[in-house]
Amino acid sequence: MSSVNVSNPNIDLTVRVFDEFYGFDVAIPAPQYDAVYAYMRSVFNTNEAAANFTTTLFRVSVESGINVMDLLQEISRYGQPELTSVLAYYLNGLQSSATLLGVQAKVLPNKYVARNVVP
To answer: How many domains does the chain contain in total?
Structure first.
């Protein structure tokens, strides 16, 4: 007898998270995705923002080697403004230091190098 509440082990219970811009593609368990997305949806106003930050958290998790549930537990104490700063911190660790996210101070080159920089 089949029931809607019983999961079928023959069906793949993973979610594929991908970001074409960064070339990020990973398969994760559906309960982890649901937990992260539900938290992001409770913090952000739109589904698009929640989905983007969910993908970002999984990218940080895969690139840094930290379990996504540990990251979720760490960031769950922050509100929306602090959360964007924390995720910018993690993302800045993954990319080039020439393109820092969330940094409002201008990066000024050395005065001897500045003359070679074309505006």
So the answer is: 1
